[in-house]
Amino acid sequence: TGTVTLDTGFTNTASCESAITYIDGDAGILRYRGYPIEQLAERSTFLEVSYLLIYGELPTAEQLGEFTNKLGMHTMVHEEMRRFFDGFPRDAHPMAVLSSGVSALSTFYQDSLDPFDPEHVEASTIRLMAKVPTIASYAYKKSIGQPFLYPDNSLNYVENFLRMTFGVPATPYDIDPEIAKALDMLFILHADHEQNCSTSTVRMVGSSNANLFASVSAGVNALFGPLHGGANSAVLEMLSDIEAGGGDVKSFVNKVKNKEDGVRLMGFGHRVYKNYDPRAAIVKKAAQDVMNRMSGPDRLLDLAMELEEIALADDYFVSRKLYPNVDFYTGLIYKAMGFPTPMFTVLFALGRLPGWIAQWREMISDPSTKIGRPRQIYTGAAERDFVALEQR
Ligand code: CMC
Fold first, then answer.
1. Neighbours of 6 (CB within 10 A)
2. In testing the pocket of ligand 1, which one of 264, 310, 348, 352 has its CB within 8 Å of the most ligand atoms?
3. What is the ipTM of this complex?
């Protein structure tokens, strides 16, 4: 009660207090728990960053070892769960399979479902971090008709995921450590981004005291959409379309400016950043490095850079403060690494997972948390009397 203010899309409404991630959108600054994203991307690892986000501090060597060992004990999924994948059609989108898989975890682990029991919270945290890469790789294997590989805990987190995704039982899988490192770095860049659509969804679902698996599964579904995590796939489709149409970047930009068929420059613009997305700057450099290593010069990378240059010099984009966001160059890297387009958003989900978990845990332990329940401005009919069917 009281005055209700309309704020469609929550552009100016804080839904919580949080000590996890700091963004200054005008200055292009992103920090996790105070640490600048540039330093973490260059010097840390995804598991360290996950620990930092979830538990609040960078781990000591001993804490990191313990965390890694705990994850190692849970990388396999329940054998019955492997059968779930038989039921999905082969052309199922891997994000749909992933969210179903995450949701299904709550059917197996009755000892991980109570949001107010610290042991349950910890067990669901470890299980999610350990099993989501396995579920993600199975979603991919299913789509190409190859057998699932069991995890190999002698490998690190990202190497293990790469092997389960690209390895086959018949041949030893040769891991390229530079590629694994690049993917690890991309996961760091995606690990948290305060109250974005999927994270707000995780918190919203969790605010009803739903368990962590249910909440994160909802987050995966929110990330699926093309305006959010789906943008990385949409960028690659956009670049491929431009190339197929003869590579005319200028006329594509004109189409965007004229808002023809509602077409947008995917991978551009952000609700919070009104400056260069600091993650995009790091990704752009990595794209050039990975491509040089994997596949040599790439026509789509050239097109992306041309598109960026034209857009950043155009008043339409300048006046609206539209800059490349994290999704603009990531798809090109994922493609060079061998991932098919539908898997791109799954990679985003793998990276965002520790952020979702950290935010859910922060919400659950915050005594000021209330169930998420926005108000509305009613615009429907005023009171009127029911009319019997025969009189309508
Ligand atoms: N291309 C062309 N015009 C755009 C774009 C774009 N990518 N983004 C915003 N605009 C225009 C929009 O048409 C509007 O113009 P006008 O004032 O003339 O109507 C103005 O800029 C403001 O846009 P908005 O839609 O009100 O801004 P928003 O804060 O609601 O949307 C956004 C943010 C990210 C959804 C939007 O910029 C967008 O659709 N971008 C393309 C999709 C994308 O790359 N998403 C990834 C976001 S970053 C990572 C993630 O969350 O996954």
1. 7
2. 264
3. 0.97
